[in-house]
Amino acid sequence: MSTEEKPAAAPRSLAEALRGRGDAELAALLRSRPDLVTPVPTDLTQLAARAGTRASVVRALDRLDRFTMQTAQALAVAADPAPYDELLGLLAGDEGDRAVSAALPGAVRTLREQALVWGDDDRLRLVRTARELLSPSPQHPSPTGLGPTVREATAGMSPGRIQEIVTTVGLPSTHDSVSAVAALTGLFTDRERMAALLAEVPFESLDVLERLMWGPPYGQVTADPATRLRRLLDRGLLLPTAPGTVVLPREVALHLRGGRAHRTTEPVPPPVEAAATHRPQVVDATAAGQVYTALATVEELLKDWDEGGPAVLRSGGLSVRDLKRTAVALDVTEPVAAFWVELAYVVGLLASDGGRGTSHALKAVGDDERYAATPAYDTWRERPAAERWTTLAAAWLTATRTPGLVGGRDAKDHTLSALGPGLDRSAAPEVRRRVLALLAGLPEGAAPDAGSVTERLRWERPPRSAGGAAGSGSTGPGGVGGGVEGDDLRSRLARWTLTEAEMLGVTGRGALSAHGRALLGMPAPKARAERTARAPESAGPGDRLPVHHRPAVPHPASPTSPSPALTVLTPAEQAAASAAAARLLAPQLPEPLDHVLLQADLTAVAPGPLQRPLADMLGVLADVESKGGATVYRFTPGSVRRALDAGRAAADLHSFLAAHSRTPVPQPLTYLIDDVARRHGHLRVGAASAYVRCDDDAVLNEILADKRAAELGLRRLAPTVLAAQTDPAGLLEGLRRMGFAPAAESAEGDVLITRADARRTPPRAAPEPVPEGPPVPDDTLLTAAIRAVRAGDLASTAPRKAKAGEADGAGAGSGELPRTGSAETLATLQAAVLTGETLWIGYVNAEGAASQRVIAPVRVEGGFVTAYDHTADEVRTYPLHRITGVAELADDES
C-alpha cells in the first residue's frame, strides 16, 4: 500500500525545532555550546529552555563572527517572524549585494546550528533572549543605529495626535489608533509613497533626518521646536518619546538608508596582509637563534634564583622591585622579564617554596616564603635542547596566564604583579593558536602585518559594544599593550602573541617557522614538501610530518565562509606534534662544545653553547661578563671561593681548566686559584647563635678592630672564638664583604659544602590553565548525553490514555509526573506484565530527583518491578514505593 507523506509541519517552538534534528546535528550543537550539556538536560524541552537562558545566549553570541552577528542584529530589527527575503533586504539593501547574497545562507545556517534561530526560511525566528539583547532601546542602543518602530514609538501617544499625523501625510483618518498606526507604517515602508512624502520636505529638514539616519536615532528638542523640526514632527518623520526627546522611526531610517540595517555590511573576512617575505631558510635559522636565546634566558633566570629567589608578596607574586632586579640580571626590559618568569612558572620550572625550600644548613629559622626552581628544572636541564624548547613552547600555547597584563590594574584597582593572581585570561590559548594559524595561511616565509591580523580577529570575534572586564592592561613584551582591558582584549592578546612567538622562536623575522608549524600539528607547506621530496638526501629526520597529522586550526574553504572552530590537540596528538617539531629544530641548533678559550686577563671565552657538565662547573667557577654569539666568563676571587665552597679543591680546579681549555692556562689564573684556596677556610663560622673561630687570634683581633664588624655584634668568647648576634648566613656574608674568606661548618666541626643547585622547592605541579567556560564534551559523553535526552524526551512527550474526566492525551508532554494510588499502580504494572503493554511512569530516585520513564514491565515481585526501560535502553529494577504513578500509553494512530 502506497501512502503519501504529509509535509512536515513548521515547528512552533525551539523545542520542536530541536526535536526535528538528527543526532549528528544535536551533537554539533552541544559541542559548540558545551554549557548546554552541563548537566545533561532531561529532555529536549529542557535543552531548549537552557539554550534560551541569558548567560548561554550571551556566550553563544560572543562566539559569532561579524557577519553572522550582523545577521542576528538584522533579525532583531526585522518582523517576528521574518521571511528570508526580508532579512536579505536588510543586509543587502534595495540595490542588492552579491557578496551578502552568497554569505547569508551560511550565516543563517550557523545561527540555526547554534540554536539562536529556528523556523523555516519563510518564518525565521530569533530566540527571545537574543532578540531582547539585540533589539534597540534607549538604554541599550542597537549596533545597527536603528530606533523603535512606528508602533513602538507611538505606544504612549494620544489618539488625537496620531490622527493629526495621519491627516497631515495625506492618509484618511481612522476610527482607532491601531489602524492609524498600521496605515502610517504602510506609508513609511512603501518606497514610492515615502519618496513622494520626503520630496515635500524642505532641504533643511532633510538634513536633520540624515544626521539621525545612521544613529543614534534620538535627538533633543525644545518645548517650541524650530520650523524645520516642526515639519518633521507633524508628518511623523520624528516622533516624541519623552519630554524634549524625539526619535527617528525605524521604518523612516531604513528608507533613508536604502533598506540597509547596517552602514557597512561585512560578509567577507578581511585578508591577512604580508608585511615582508623572507626565504624559509632564513626564517628557520632566525627562529632557531631565538630558540637558543630563549633556553639560555630561562636557564640564567633559574640559575640566578638557585640560592633562593625573590620573596613572595603577601598577596602573591613578585614585587615591582624584584621584577626590576630580574630584568637587570637578564639584561631585558621589565615586560620581557615578566614573560620569561611567567613562562618558567607555567612550565613548572619555578614555584614558591612555601617557606620550606631546601637550602644549606645555615638557612635562618623562619625564612620567608620565596620563589625557587622546582625539582622538575633539574630534569628539564638534562634533556636535549630541542626537547627543552618544545616543553616551553607547548606550555605557552595552552597557558591562560597573560604576562602582558603585568603592571596593569584589576577591577579592584590592585596592581597586577608577575606570578601573582589575576593574570589568567581564558581566551589566551585560543587567540594564540588562531594567530599562528593565520600566519600558517600566508605564503611560506611571509611575515604578517600586525594590524591586518588584529582586524581579522576582530571580524571573527567582534568585541561587544559595551561591557567587558574592568581594569587596565599594561605594556606587553616588546612594548605592545596599554589601554583599558575589556572588549579589545583579543586584539591585545594577538599583538602579544606575535611578540612572544618571536621571542620564543616559534616565528623568525615575523614568519612562522617550520618547527613552529609542526608544533601546531600542521603539515609542512606544499612547496616545502615538494622540495623535500625532490631532495630527500638533504632532508633532516624531522622535515616530514606523519601523514596522519591533521591541522590544529582548519582554514575557511572560501573567503566568505565563517571562521571554523579551532581543533585542540589531544595530549597524544600534542606529544606527536612536539616530537616532530623537535626533529625539525634539532639540526638548526648548534652542537654543544666541550672546551673554552682561557685569556690572560682572567676571562674565558665560550665560542658557543657548552655541554652541560662544563657549563655547570664554569658557571660556579666564573661569572658571566657578556653574552651573545660567544659568552665571556670572568674569574674573580668571589667566583673561585664559590667553587671552593661547593667542595672543589684547588687541584681539582687546575685539572678542570687544563682539560677543557684549548689555550694554556694563564699564570694569573693559576695564582688567583692558589691564593684564594690558601685563605679559604682559615676562618670557620658555625651555629651557636653564630660564632666564628680561628686558630690565629691575630686575625680575630683584626676583625674586632674593623668598624664594619659593628653591625655583626661580635664579642670574644675565647682567644680563638668570637660570638655574633646575627645568624650564620649573615655572619658569612658580612665577613666576606670585609675581605675574608670564611667557611661554614657543621655542629660536628666539618666544613659545609654548598652546591649551586642546593635550593629547590618541594615537588610542585605546573598551574592548570583556566578554561573558558565548560569543557568541550568528547564523543563518548556526547553520545551518552544525546541518548539520555532522546530517551527523556520520549518519556515526556509519549501520549497516554486519558482517564475518566480527562481530555484525550491530558498530561502528555506537560512535564507533570503521573499520579496514581499504590493499589492502582501495582495492578496496572501486573496487568502490563501479562499483556506486554508499555507504560508511562513517574519515578523519584534516592536523591529526590524526579523523572518520567517509558517502561515495559517484565516482572513484579518483592516490592520491585523489573522492566525494560526505553529511556535508558536497558533492563532496570525500580522500587515500587518510588514510583509516583503509572499511565497507559495511547495506541499509535495508523
UniProtKB/TrEMBL annotation:
Residues 824-886 form the WYL domain. Residues 134-154, 461-487, 524-562, 797-819 are annotated as: Disordered. Residues 596-718 form the Helicase XPB/Ssl2 N-terminal domain. InterPro entries: WYL_dom, XPB/Ssl2_N. It comes from the Bacteria. Keywords: ATP-binding, Helicase, Hydrolase, Nucleotide-binding. Residues 468-484 have a biased composition (Gly residues). Pfam families: Helicase_C_3, WYL. Residues 553-562 have a biased composition (Pro residues). GO terms for molecular function: helicase activity. This is Helicase-associated domain-containing protein. It comes from Streptomyces chlorus.
